[in-house]
Design brief:
Blueprint: E1 10-11, H1 16-29, E2 36-41, E3 48-53, H2 64-68, H3 77-85, H4 91-101, H5 105-113, H6 118-127, H7 140-147
Antiparallel strand pairs: 1-3, 2-3
C-alpha cells in the first residue's frame, strides 16, 4: 500500500522535480477555471508549496523559465525510474504508468518495432469524444478539425 501525503501541495526540498510536475498538472487541470497555481519555496527548511495565484503571470514565480516552458520530450529513463520507484506517486504519473503496465509485453514490443504513432491514436480518440483542447463540448466535426491535424 502506498503511503498518503499529509498535504498533497507540499513537497520536501528533495522533491523539487515532483513539486514542478505537480504544479504543471494542477495548472493543466485548472486551465478552464481561471485558477492558477504557483510554486513557493519555504524559508528555512527549503520545502516547496503549491498555492493559488491571483494572475497567471505570478504562477511560476519560483522557477519561471523551468516550469513555464516545461514539457517532457527530453525525459530520460532515469526520470521514469524515479517515478516508478516513488512511494507516493503523483496521480497522473501513476495512471500513465498503469496504462502501459497493463499492456501485453508482446504488444508493447510490436508498437516499438512497427513505430506505431501513439500520439495519432490519442488524437483520434480525443476527436471521437467531441471535445476541444480545453475539454469543452464542441461536437464531433469540430473536434476532428482540432485534434486530427
Amino acid at each position: 500500500m502506498r503511503k498518503q501525503r499529509s498535504n498533497p501541495n507540499s513537497f520536501s526540498n528533495l522533491e523539487k522535480q515532483k513539486a514542478i510536475d505537480a504544479l504543471l498538472w494542477k495548472n493543466f487541470e485548472a486551465r478552464n477555471e481561471g485558477v492558477f497555481y504557483k510554486l513557493f519555496q519555504k524559508q528555512g527548511k527549503g520545502d516547496f508549496v503549491i498555492q493559488k495565484a491571483n494572475t497567471p503571470e505570478g504562477m511560476y514565480n519560483l522557477y519561471s523559465k523551468t516550469v513555464r516552458q516545461k514539457n517532457y520530450r527530453k525525459m530520460i529513463y532515469t526520470d521514469i525510474q524515479k517515478i516508478a520507484q516513488e512511494d507516493n506517486p503523483l496521480h497522473h504519473w501513476e495512471e500513465i504508468r498503469g496504462l502501459f503496465s497493463s499492456f501485453d509485453g508482446e504488444l508493447l514490443r510490436y508498437i516499438l518495432h512497427a513505430k506505431i504513432p501513439l500520439e495519432k491514436f490519442i488524437r483520434y480518440e480525443l476527436a471521437s469524444r467531441g471535445f476541444d483542447k480545453d475539454h469543452n463540448w464542441c461536437g464531433f466535426e469540430k473536434a476532428k478539425k482540432i485534434w486530427l491535424i
